[in-house]
Amino acid sequence: MTIKDTPEEWEIRATDTPFVGNKTSVRTDDVVMPDGSVVRRDYQVHPGSVAVLALDDEDRVLLIKQYRHPVRQKLWEIPAGLLDIPGENPLHAAQRELYEEAHVKAEDWRVLTDVYTTPGGCDEAVRIFLARHLSEAEGDRFEVEDEESDMEHARVPVDELVRGVLAGELHNNCLVVGVLSLVAARASGGVDGLRPAGAAWPARPFEV
């Protein structure tokens, strides 16, 4: 038996969009269940995101700490951002986020993993990249605003992050998934076996 997620789409009898925000919206679908009954499902419609686990030559991960109002916490996270342009190449978006949030560039990029953050209530798909061979970006720093104006930066050893994740001290999903995926990749053949940075992403198709 092959353990693999598969595409499938159940019949929708009716749909509505009761809320449209700046970046996301809420959709209500009347979905036909296997027994023929119709059930209403509300979910957030999201453009998709990218995140970057940037690893330096001392085996430290580049982190930012940012206030997240919905959970009323400042969370340690890896650089991440929205796919603002439909069909945008996720690698280009990830490179932009690493520059804007950390003023860093990387020479080696690979796909670490792809995830749905909360598939029971949101269609957000995130591609997490592994970026290595880091250096300071050229040019002026990106001008930050709002929550980003209060960001902190740090570089933390991988082992310390694993400890923090398992101790329940770190909660950002991209950080947790990214760090544990890195450890798993190293234990199963090494990061050179990861998918190339331009690998297909059915959840958010893009032009190369």
TrEMBL record:
One of its GO terms (cellular component) is cytosol. InterPro entries: NUDIX_hydrolase-like_dom_sf, NUDIX_hydrolase_dom. CDD domains: NUDIX_ADPRase_Rv1700 (cd24158). One of its GO terms (molecular function) is hydrolase activity. Keywords: Hydrolase. It comes from the Bacteria. Pfam families: NUDIX. PANTHER family: ADP-RIBOSE PYROPHOSPHATASE, UDP/ADP-SUGAR PYROPHOSPHATASE. This is NUDIX hydrolase.
